[in-house]
Amino acid sequence: MAELLGDTVSDNGLRIARAGTGRLISSAADTAIVEFLTGSPERSRTGLSAFALRPPLSSEDEKDPPLATHSGDELLYVLAGQVRLWMADRIEDLAAGDSAWYQAEIPHRLRSLGHEQAQVLIVTCNCLV
Q1: Parallel, antiparallel, or unpaired for β 99-103 and 32-36?
Q2: Residue 115 exposed, middle or buried by CB count within 10 Å (0-12, 13-18, 19+)
Q3: Mean pLDDT of 15-42
Q4: Sheet with strand 23-27: strands edge to edge
Q5: Max CA-CA distance within the chain?
Q6: How far apart are the C-alpha atoms of 3 and 85, rounded to whole Å?
Q7: Alpha helices in 40-107 (DSSP H)
């Protein structure tokens, strides 16, 4: 199955996803573009998942964007551009090179700032410690 989705899996558990083979998902509702870097949105047995995200552009008339929640922890790293991160009642603007870690159960939302969509690396973990 993994090979069909662009993954190369070896006997020792190493998984390689070649450039351009990740599964692209575009959300028409808010024009976010997501590429799962593992080639598929399935989580590994470790509970880790990584994807590249181009958050939708922020708009002036957007007063209260919907906030997302899900299980696990989330690490985001801004690769290019600027983003605005809403965390419950807190708002943070992040630029290329900035990162944030948070519990994904806390309501959150991400938007690109400026005229072009930012590029963000997201790593999520539903790991048991």
Answers
A1: unpaired
A2: exposed
A3: 65
A4: 23-27, 32-36, 48-54, 119-125, 73-80, 99-103
A5: 52
A6: 35
A7: none
Six-digit token string for 35: 């590429």
Token reading at 117: 């969509």
* Residue 122 to residue 58: CA distance in whole angstroms: 19
- What number of residues does the chain have? 129
User: d(Cα 103, Cα 89) in Å, to the nearest integer?
Assistant: 14
Helical (H) or strand (E) element with 87: strand 82-87
Q: What whole-number distance in Å separates Cα of residue 56 and Cα of residue 52?
A: 13
Tens of pLDDT, residue by residue over 108-126, are: 999 999 999 999 999 988 8
- In the beta sheet, which residues pair with residue 27? 32
What does DSSP assign to residue 16? E
Token code pair at residue 4 = 């069909």
pTM: 0.77
Q: Which residue in 45, 38, 105, 112 sits closest to 74, CA to CA? A: 105
Burial of 96 (0-12, 13-18, 19+ CB in 10 A): middle
